[in-house]
Design goal:
This protein is of the alpha/beta class. It contains six helices and twelve strands. α4 crosses α6. The two termini are about 25 Å apart.
């Protein structure tokens, strides 16, 4: 069972959180390299395994474009984005264009997969499973579509399938960053600014829309956290290094 340090960052703009992720990500890699280069067992004992980190955050309106994405999937010009108060960042995760904003729960696991399994596809399927189990608590039957990373409602229908959670990750030396964005009570009109994830024939949805009532992020957070902890076997620990706080 690995150790987990969890932080709920509340509502924050995208760039400071990206910078914070990068700082944690680089710290874990640095500590991992130090363990690899330890000269003997005594030195290794002094270098404990890196602790997994899980960040929850609700972002202000922002579009992020993955490194394999197409900027043409943004359907409005920069002036319109500025008018709507929507930031825009090309970033270093996988995937295409996506939207983050109020009413959406974003989770960033920053973990060393060498402690679990060195398989990015399995990692993404594990994140998806946590979301599928969370949706099930609201009697939402969610699932996967072959060849399309994400969690979908009516996944087996070509015409009715709609994405409820998007994923995009980066990994280096088997350390991960970025993660998932679960639409809880999002204003889905903002997805009209883009072709979400570059997929033109599928819609988007949210927990609130599916069950017909307003659902708060505070209601969903402990459920998603529980399922992530259960699937990864995390034991939560406290005491963040003050130098690592956002």
């Amino acid at each position: 069972m690995g150790l987990l340090q969890f932080e709920d960052l509340g509502t924050k703009r995208y760039k400071p959180c990206w910078d914070y992720q990068e700082k944690i990500f680089k710290t874990i890699i640095r500590r991992k390299i130090a363990r690899r280069d330890a000269e003997d067992d005594a030195a290794l004992i002094q270098l404990p395994l890196p602790t997994s980190r899980l960040l929850f955050v609700e972002h202000n309106h922002v579009l992020t474009l993955g490194k394999s994405g197409d900027a043409e999937n943004v359907l409005v010009n920069p002036a319109r984005l500025a008018e709507l108060g929507v930031d825009y960042f090309p970033i270093n995760r996988g995937g295409d264009i996506t939207y983050h904003g109020p009413g959406q729960l974003v989770a960033y696991p920053i973990i060393d997969l060498d402690q679990y399994f060195t398989d990015i596809h399995k990692y993404l399927r594990t994140l998806e499973e946590a979301v599928i189990r969370t949706c099930a608590e609201y009697d939402i039957i969610a699932g996967r579509i072959d060849g399309m990373t994400g969690v979908w409602v009516d996944a087996e229908s070509d015409t009715r399938a709609r994405k409820i959670c998007a994923f995009g990750v980066k990994a280096s030396r088997w350390v991960t960053m970025h993660g998932l964005a679960l639409n809880v009570d999002s204003d889905l009109n903002f997805f009209n600014l883009i072709i979400p994830c570059g997929i033109v024939d599928r819609g988007v949805t949210s927990i609130s829309k599916e069950i017909g009532r307003k659902v708060s992020l505070d209601e969903v957070k402990p459920r998603l956290k529980h399922h992530l902890q259960s699937l990864f076997g995390w034991e939560e620990t406290s005491g963040l290094d003050s130098a690592e706080k956002c």
